[in-house]
Amino acid sequence: MGKRIAAFGEVMMRLQAPGYDLLSQANTLSYSFSGTGVNVISALARFGHDGYLVTRLPDNPLGDAATANLRKLGIAQKFVARGGSYIGMYFLENGFGARPSRVTYSNRLESSFNTAPADAYDFADIVGQLDVAHFCGITLAMNDAVRSHMLRFAKAAKARGSLVAFDCNYRPSLWGEGGYEKAKPFYEQMLGLADIVMMNEKDAMYLLGMPTKGTTREEQLEELVPEVARIYGIAAAAGTHRSVNGDNTHSLRGYLYKDGRFHYSDTLTFAVYDRIGAGDAYTSGILHGELSGFEPERTVRYAAAAAMLAHTTVGDTPMAAEREIVRAMTQAAGDVER
């Protein structure tokens, strides 16, 4: 039986240069709407859960277009507030070979979400209708008002007994100079409220300042994540290790730490069509497995397969159905399905 899940986060307008063009070369841009909350919740709705987004959109045609997109993705509108004038935007240039993809933000701090007043959301009413609340470190980086909303929502969810999921998702460009020091107290508050956390050893080392004797990423992970879980009372932690290969393929291995044990997926190697949003696909897989009572080994394999498939479709938002993910867990890519 599906759960009722809401994510707190901004809806972003993605403006993409065609193919592998630079913005300086392109004459046209395609647009879509996304955001961490949009991506995670739409995937979970596709898996059979009731998905909600807690956000604020402008009361104008851009906001109307964004809400239409949310409906198309199966995301309920019940907790979407309207007000303000702007929607946050980012411009995407696809990388190729040695040139990485590049994201340029525009108008984000003036967006309806990031300027929402203190009374924009009725969190007491919202948490009374939820089983799970999802939060992201990207949202935590915005400003003090957004951080206040986020912490109030997380505390209300925790007090009611709802499951709290938090994706660390630290972005240096959003926190600016001295970012780790600025971010640490807010991350510590969210980790103290979270039941399920998306993170890896770098978050523990750089955000939380934890020392390690490990010399490899896996050694560091297995030393630090159990300590983070112990300190903050986290029931489950999950994340990925990624490597970019010389032939432009990527390799990804997922982990899940639960009940004092690490569980790993196989290392998956695949070609990349669009990388943006693949981490959100992995998160949705972990949450679906946890909420559906999967064994940990199945959960981490499911999440890794979901992330792999997200690399194969254009756009931020994961589009794979559960049957496609299950098939990808057991079968190599084949010919056309007929």
Please tag this protein with its features.
single chain, 338 residues, alpha/beta, ten-stranded mixed sheet, four-stranded mixed sheet, 12 helices, 14 strands, 38% helix, 23% strand, globular
What is this structure's SSE topology?
Elements: E1 4-8, E2 12-16, E3 30-34, H1 36-46, E4 50-57, H2 61-72, E5 80-82, E6 88-93, E7 102-106, H3 123-127, E8 132-136, H4 137-140, H5 144-160, E9 163-167, H6 172-175, H7 179-193, E10 196-198, H8 201-207, H9 217-232, E11 236-244, E12 249-258, E13 261-264, E14 268-271, H10 278-292, H11 296-310, H12 322-330
Helix count? Answer: 12
Percent helix among the residues? 25-40%
Mean pLDDT: 94
Rg over CA atoms: 19 Å
Class computed from helices, strands and strand pairing? alpha/beta
* Uncertain ranges: none
The description of the largest β-sheet is: 10 strands, mixed
The 3D shape can be described as globular
Question: What does this entry look like structurally?
Answer:
With 338 residues, the chain is an alpha/beta fold. The protein is 38% helix and 23% strand. The chain has helices at residues 36-46, 61-72, 123-127, 137-140, 144-160, 172-175, 179-193, 201-207, 217-232, 278-292, 296-310, 322-330; strands spanning 4-8, 12-16, 30-34, 50-57, 80-82, 88-93, 102-106, 132-136, 163-167, 196-198, 236-244, 249-258, 261-264, 268-271. Strands 1, 4, 5, 8, 9, 10, 11, 12, 13 and 14 form a ten-stranded mixed beta sheet that branches. Strands 3-2-6-7 form a four-stranded mixed beta sheet. Helix 1 packs across helix 10 (278-292) and helix 5 runs parallel beside helix 7 (179-193). The radius of gyration is 19 Å and the shape is globular. It starts with a strand and ends in an 8-residue tail after the last helix.
